[in-house]
């Protein structure tokens, strides 16, 4: 959806039940960034709307370029 206060806002349709939204986020990011899902780690926000992820092998600049 774009940038929001320095963060990147992503809207998913998966429900936040039993980790489905987290799995959907990782799957979306892997596909969109063209990286293996195993390189994406959810660091913070497992049960929150605000998440912090680490993506191995990409700089922040490359990540923003591919997502935005």
Termini gap: 8 Å
What is the rounded Rg?
11 Å
Number of DSSP helical runs: 2
Q: Estimate what percentage of residues fall within beta strands.
A: 15-25%
Q: How would you classify the quaternary structure?
A: single chain
* SSE-based structural type: alpha+beta
Low-pLDDT segments, ≥5 res:
none
Query: What's the shape?
Result: globular
Task: Give the integer mean of the pLDDT values.
Answer: 89
How do the SSEs run, as a string of H and E? EEHEEH
Numbering strands along the chain, what is their spatial order in the largest sheet? 1-2
Main sheet characteristics: 2 strands, antiparallel
**What's the helical proportion of residues?**
25-40%
- The count of β-strands is 4
What are the salient characteristics of this protein?
68 residues; alpha+beta; two-stranded antiparallel sheet; two-stranded antiparallel ribbon; 2 helices
Explain this structure to me?
- It is built from two helices and four strands; from the N terminus they run ββαββα.
- The chain is of the alpha+beta class and 68 residues long.
- The strands form two sheets. Strands 1-2 form a two-stranded antiparallel sheet. The protein has a two-stranded antiparallel ribbon with strand order 3-4.
